Amino acid sequence: MTVRVYGEVLSPANLQFRKDKTPDTYVSEAGGLTYYADDDRAFVLYPDGSAQPLQISAWNHRAAMIPPGSTIVVPRDPKPFDFIESAKDITQILSNLAITSVFVRDIKDN
Prior knowledge:
CATH topology of the largest domain: Outer membrane lipoprotein wza fold like
Strand content: 15-25%
Number of domains: 2
Number of helices: 2
CATH class of the largest domain: Alpha Beta
Structural class: alpha+beta
Shape: rod-shaped
Helix content: 25-40%
Radius of gyration: 23 Å
Order of helices and strands: EEHEEEEEH
CATH superfamily of the largest domain: Outer membrane lipoprotein wza domain like
CATH architecture of the largest domain: Roll
Oligomer: single chain
Distance between the termini: 81 Å
């Protein structure tokens, strides 16, 4: 009896089922989440084909019973937040605004 953990985890695996394990425990045993994981959209696929969202993020945690034969799926975040990339974009916008203001001032002076 196993539970499969699939998607954006460090080591996707079939893990031994234990009735006291939470989704967090299964994800941790699969190596934890990757940088690109979208833990807010994780879900469990039950053996009967039905699915249910999981809350496995640190601030949105609710334990759910995972029966044997289930698959926990952690999808990829389509665009994870990247501070450096965001800072570059903001810097570029501010730079363009500064250049535009210089041109506007020069036009007004002439």
